[in-house]
Amino acid sequence: MAYEGRVGSKMGGGGMASHSATNQDRRERLRKLALETIDLEKDPYFFRNHVGSFECRLCLTVHQNDGSYLAHTQGRKHQTNLARRAAREAKEGKGLDPITGLPAGMIGQQIVQPRKNLIKIGRPGYKITKIRDPVTRQTGLLFQLQYPEIGTEIKPRYRFMSAFEQRVEQPPDKNFQYLLIAAEPYETVAFKLQAREVDRSGDRFWTWFDKDQKEFWLQMFFKTEREERYAGVPGLARR
User: Fold this and answer.
1) Closest by CA position to 218, among listed 237, 239, 193, 235
2) pTM of the full predicted structure?
3) What are its GO cellular component terms (predicted)?
């Protein structure tokens, strides 16, 4: 690292590095070292949240970039938590790799679960209906998807995904989120929604799968602007 231009040093003569500069240089060296040895796509504790930051699921820490996360994985806290989890799982005998003896998902695991070579038969038929609660004036959506060729033991699954998790529309738009519904052997379908909080109280949000008609229903309501703005405020009267 360069020491020129520091207080008390001459041009070309170097100088004492400050504590912050030393830490910055150390983090950069750890980042370069980690990039050569760690693949983030295979790290079971690496997670990109809905705002684009990086989280460590093991230590419950948040990092602004991949360099900060990689430096964290080489630190004492992460390595200590790795050792503690490995010791606990080895004691309980859970999730151990039969070849290496390490917990499943850790670096060194040799067995990779084979992916299913399932032939997709196309997208399901669907219908979307806009709905509104007559009392609270909340807006919502009702999804109806038809799966006539679905297996008898298979039930459609759903999840909400932020714009920062998808790789179809670049750059991601934080004003939108996606509802994914999957059921083999059909293709997974995604619906682009407003990035508003979903109301899961009471019977506002529900799903139902009709096994006879092979039809999947999902109803959702968005929270009102007042609830989103003042959520968690003490003394706020509930709806």
Assistant:
1) 193
2) 0.49
3) catalytic step 2 spliceosome; U2 snRNP; U2-type prespliceosome
In whole angstroms, give the CA distance from residue 153 to residue 176.
Answer: 33
pLDDT tens digits, 95-140: 555 555 555 555 444 444 555 556 678 889 999 999 999 888 899 9
| Distance, CA of 55 to CA of 66 (rounded, Å) | 10
Q: Please report, as a single letter, which amino acid is at residue 77.
A: K
Phi and psi (nearest 5°) for 96?
Answer: -90, 140
Regarding predicted confidence, which is higher, 97 or 159? 159
Q: Which residues contact 87 (CB under 8 A, 6 or more apart)?
A: none
61 Cβ contact list (under 8 Å, min separation 6): 55, 72, 77
Domain residue extents for the chain: 125-229
Residue from 88, 123, 120, 124 nearest 106 by CA: 88
| Architecture (CATH level 2) of domain 125-229 | Sandwich (2.60)
Helix (H) or strand (E) holding 206: strand 206-210
- Give CA–CA dist 25/121, Å, rounded: 53
